[in-house]
Amino acid sequence: MADLLDRLGGDVTFPRLLVRNARSMGDRVALREKEFGVWQSFTWSAYHDRVRDFSLGLVALGLTRGDKVAIIGDNRPEWVMGEIAAQAVGAASVGIYQDSNLTEVAYVIDHCDASVVIAEDQEQVDKILDMLEKLPKVRHVVYTDPRGLRKYHHPALLPFEAVEQKGRALAKERPSLWEENVAKGSADDVAIICYTSGTTGNPKGATLTFRNLLSMALALDDVDEKRRDDEFVSFLPLAWIGEQMMSLSSALAKGFTVNFPEEPDTVTENIREIGPNVMFAPPRVWESLTSTVQVKIMDTSPFKRFLYERCMPIGEKVADLRFAKKPLPLGLRVLYWAAYVLLFRALKDRLGMTNLRTASTGGAALGPDVFRFFHAMGVPLKQIYGQTEIAGISCIHRDDDIAFHTVGKPIPGTDVRISPDGEILSRSASVFLGYYKNDEATRGTLRDGWLHSGDAGYLDEKSGHLVVIDRLKDVMKLADGTKFSPQFIENRLKFSPYVKEAVVVGHDRPYLTGMLCIDMGVVGKWAEKNRLSYTTYTDLSAKGEVYDLVQREVDKVNETLPAAARIRKFVLLYKELDADDEELTRTRKVRRVFVEDRYKDVIAALYGDVPEVRIDTTIRFQDGKTSHIRTTLLVRRLEQGRAA
Amino acid sequence: MSLLEANGIILSFRGVAALSDVSFSVDEGTIHAIVGPNGAGKTSLLNCVSGVYRPQRGTIHFAGRDLTHVPPAARTALGIARTFQNIALFRGMTVLDNLLIGRHVHQKTGVLAGALYLGPGKREEIAHREIVEDVIDFLEIQHIRKKVVGTLAYGLQKRVELARALALEPKLLLLDEPMAGMNAEEKEDMARFIVEIHEERGTAIVMIEHDMGVVMELSNRITVLNFGEKIAEGTPDEVKRNRDVQDAYLGEQHDLAADG
User: Fold this and answer.
1) Whole-number Å distance between alpha carbons of A493 and A555
2) Domains in chain A, start-ordered, CATH in brackets?
3) Out of A147, A148, A262, whose CB is closest to B142?
């Protein structure tokens, strides 16, 4: 297959694409950020000029080829500018999740050998300065928001503008330096080191080249087109490969506009203002949109609720027929048109999805109900599958070929096969170079050019779609040998709006049990409606009425499971699983081994013959503070008649 | 020179003395706390400064100007803004509108120009909005900009009230129990905002507060009132060591120095 990069002119890098875009469409808007209540625009040429200045400033600070620059902060123009500026010098950019705690931040900065750190604000600067003694390789900490930092006088600390000024000064001395630097780069240079939040152990840094990232963006574009006029809202961590793919590789290759929200709290509102044409988000975003709508419908006027309850089934019927690739009867078309006018059009507008042409979800499985919900209102949501190590994506649904139990077909230029053990293997121009300073892990993942995903799956013979079952190591067996996938069951449980998190236990045990976390927002609303008073999350979780509510949901899931692999007992945990307590990864996947160890008393009670278990524990907050919890958890046993 | 100087303030209500001969002064760029037990006259003193009460005797000077006969609204225009113990906002209006109303005293163009939204009227409106947006950004309330105040949580309403006071671009900010009724996290946020207002904007702040931890941590100077009389004044350390304060304010056995 021909080299995809030829379409962009062969040997290209992000800085080179930025220069190209500034030349060919300098006046078009490249970035937009909402600040002081107004959307402020940066054209491609303004974007280019700021990156040039900052990049030369980094040279003035002593950054050279092969160095690393770590970036931590919310999504802002300075984040992406900092990345491209570093790459123009020949340094790799390393994104850090902005909600990481001190130790996580320090680990990544130190492991990647970063000499410069770009930190957004006081919060992030504090994290780094607190750990600076343990970070001997860091020479400069550049901040973008001076708020609250006026009284900081650390020699390593300097503002973003000061670096830009140094760059402008250097440009006067050596006017051709920027062009020379950009020219030195090659598509096979390391562009980013993307640390993946592994479910076990320390994060691993996947090194990806410009070729990896851009091949991916172009191959995806062939089956999921982005246009130059498109609007995109960047609100997921830029440290995540998915956001890198959209806000950098795809935006630079295709030239669409990337919008940065005002604050994390204003994302929904900002999405509505922009009305993006393209959206990419992990399942939790789609799930939370769905449950927000459902909660608001519970709250709305009876007339609107009536409309919702009448129109939604029509939309779902249409969606199901489309999924099954069956023709729509004329009567249904008319009904759908009416439902669209009465409900879906307004609903899409509220969600900011009126202009949405293509939407995708990736990172984990998304429930059929959520899928159906968006398709019902005419939002073309597609599932994406891939790993950071393959620059994000290997498979995606095609527009007219969506089946929610699959992840679609491989994108052009990607080969997918299943190993004899049932593991999903993939190969493309986007497969990474290896893990940074971790050859052992690289050897385990990358063999003969095939990326070993660690996922169990199969290719559906009829449709050619890839079906992902679970992590290979997470497919478990009950004591009697019955195979089950806890994640599969957990996802089914989480499709209920009342259940926020679920952990299913049962490996080498006689039967399955579950530890569930309620969704405070939805269950709280339900409690209010049913005149059930409560104080805290812990209190609400312990209510018998809430147990009854959740039990009905568990029963529903049990009905769809084989008799041997049904949940026999469950508890509602006294707190939500939290990444700060290391129970979830930063991308909100359950760290099973850790959780099973932490809640071993609860699990013992689930397999014992006790009606309740006493809890006496400490929880830790992001800022290091702790709080003490003492409570009693009920164990709910599901009746044999219904459960078995 | 002091920014605010109050001399020999005497205030009584039908013969009940609320303040008897209280003098105090606030320097530019300081955080000045007024503390004392309930009914000590703290809010009365603040009301004298903002002009709600007219003291029977004594003078108040602000930036070298005699305020004794200046009505409250004019004091606001001179650069004194305040927040109230019980939130005083327009509950049915949005956060943004509440803040813009705060800008009213600085309105220069007339009603007609404003209504037509042309030329100077429009320019002024935009300038006011810029100042308000700056305050919104400063106090991190972007997400509630267009929310109706009455629907907001109590802690957020307190923050909006502070924002409204800041929108006046005051030289002196009077805060009456800014942290009353807040939870630990909201208090921490509020304390951070007070420090930042002081550091970033250089605004002098007079604050009544019951949370001693906050007072000791934030303020440069403290005035202690008891039964309408000033019993001590000084830096937090000086006040902590003062016997009278320990006896009067915290009960005779309480040893504040050991506590702090």
Assistant:
1) 10
2) 13-185+228-276 (3.40.50.12780), 281-471 (3.40.50.12780), 475-643 (3.30.300.30)
3) A262
Which of B143, B185, B193, B201 has the most A C-beta neighbours within 10 Å, making it the best mutation to test the interface with A? Answer: B143
Token pair of B78 as six digits: 């001179």
- Going through A419-521 in order, the beta strands assigned E by DSSP cover 423-427, 434-435, 446-447, 450-459, 466-471, 476-477, 483-484, 499-505, 512-518
Residue A406 has phi, psi (to 5 degrees) of: -115, 175
Closest residue of chain A to B130, computed from CA coordinates: A36
Q: In angstroms, rounded to a whole number, what is the distance separating the alpha carbons of residues A320 and A329?
A: 13
Its ipTM equals 0.75
Distance separating alpha carbons of residues A59 and A169, to the nearest angstrom: 11
Count CB neighbours of A382 within 10 A: 23
Task: Look at the alpha carbons of A606, A609, A611, A615 in this order and tell me if their dihedral is positive or negative.
Answer: negative
A535/B contact by beta carbon, under 8 A: no
Whether residue A37 and residue B199 make contact (CB cut-off 8 A), yes or no, is no
- CB distance A150–B140 less than 8 Å? no
> A429 and A212 in contact (C-beta within 8 Å)?
yes
Q: Is the C-alpha dihedral spanning A49, A50, A56, A57 positive or negative?
A: positive
CA distance A36 to chain B (A): 5
DSSP 8-class letter at A352: T
| Interatomic CA distance for residues A16 and A88, integer angstroms | 8
Please list the pLDDT of chain B residue by residue as tens digits (260 residues): 689 999 999 998 888 888 989 999 999 989 999 998 888 889 999 999 998 898 999 999 998 889 888 888 888 888 999 998 878 889 999 999 999 988 877 777 666 666 767 777 788 888 899 999 999 999 999 999 999 999 999 989 999 999 999 999 999 999 999 998 888 888 999 999 999 899 888 899 999 998 888 899 999 999 999 888 898 899 999 988 888 887 776 665 555 444 43
Contact between A263 and B196 using a beta-carbon 8 Å cutoff = no
Nearest to A318 by CA among A307, A303, A334, A294: A334
Task: Return the H-helix or E-strand segment holding A158.
Answer: strand A157-159
